Amino acid sequence: MKIDVLVAEIGSTTTVVNGFSGIHAGEPVFVGQGQAPTTVLDGDVRIGLQGAMEDLARNMGTEALEYEEMLATSSAAGGLKMTVHGLVYDMTAKAAKEAALGAGGIIHHITAGKLRRTDLQRIREIKPNLILLAGGVDYGERDTALHNAEMIRSMDLKIPVIYAGNCENQDEIRLIFDEESGTRLYVVENVYPKIDQLNVEPCRAVIQDAFEDHIVHAPGMEHVRELVSGPIVPTPGAVMECTKLLNQRIGNLIVFDVGGATTDLHSVTEDSDQIGRILISPEPKAKRTVEGDLGVYVNMHNILDLIGEEALKKDLPGLDLEKVLREYKAIPDTTEQIRFVERLTKEAVLRATERHAGQIRYVYGPSGRSTLAEGKDLTQVRYIVGTGGALTRLPGRVEILKEIARHNETGLLLFPGDHAEILIDNDYIMASLGVLSRKYPEAALRLLEKSLGITFPEIQEEKLEKPKYEQELEALAAEQHEKGHL
What we know:
Shape: globular
Strand content: 15-25%
Number of helices: 18
CATH architecture of the largest domain: 2-Layer Sandwich
Largest sheet: 5 strands, mixed
Structural class: alpha/beta
CATH class of the largest domain: Alpha Beta
Number of strands: 17
């Protein structure tokens, strides 16, 4: 079978390739998956990519793969490392952070206010792939962002910089990062143009473009670029793209991706009217959080510390913990290992949800107690989706996700009761479909239906409402016509 599109997911530890046919015929089919260890340490990621392609060929019963085009996502060599610098943490710095995370960035340092020497030293140590500068609402405070730009220019890092702050600074920012600086500068709309107004999507798009153009630096990745006919997208950003696409068809949802090193949550949901009225700061409709300490393999011991040895023994009676820890692999292959990793995954899901969700706060003042809401409102979530290795392969994956509603702590803005429907990305292809959707959105939707085991409701064509000024002009013309003036 000839493959229309091959999508490579080049991860930090594993490279996966997914094959799709029938893309051009309107009947897309997922034909198979192959995987192999990522070979960054061998000096060329193409070795792992070739191994994954050979594995796919074996799974398909053929000696060599034939495909028309290749797309790719990547989180190799640590993914898209970023530092973010704004004016006030709860305002512009937070908005910049949301833009970076939603695009698939891994944030290693956030600052608010003017950069200090210690901040510059931290940036040097991190060696980020990308620096995001924000600060000041449009036509507001200017000096902090300009000071930070000058400080970063003085470091002579030759690292791409995105400016997404006060629009009045744009020309001066361009002068600071001129051709002599050797820094590639991207200027984009302000992520926080007005008080309590977020504008993160333009910045997210530019971050992914910057990743595509400059950040694909893992050994051998420049040669992968020659093989790829479309964009190379950060893997978490691709999952977010797929989540937003899914939101357009089924509404408010949250996607869990539990991995060996991190646990990622992607939610695309509206605030309820009740919570929206008492929310103290805006939240993006599409939000991603990354819990870098919650991984079921690389960061396994962090989760064990959160559970506690006594609680673990109580939850898993009869488990030989020492033996499991001694023999534990990235992919569990015994009943005891599966029980163990299911408990780790459950803890990762519950802890990550608590950190992602907002909460109710009570403030006491002269007039008594006031009720406020802070953070992301998940009370309107109707679908909980599991993707990633753990939540697509473990036998107890559905029960793990059902535990979220049962675990709802008082004050958290979580979906109440058991009304949310559980969906599983059974083919483990959401990241691939995120990058595929950029060129073939309808095919991505059909493949998503099959992987999730659902049928999307048909979209009814809606008559677009004309802009208000056009309506006013037409009403005025009609009025003049009745009076005989036209």
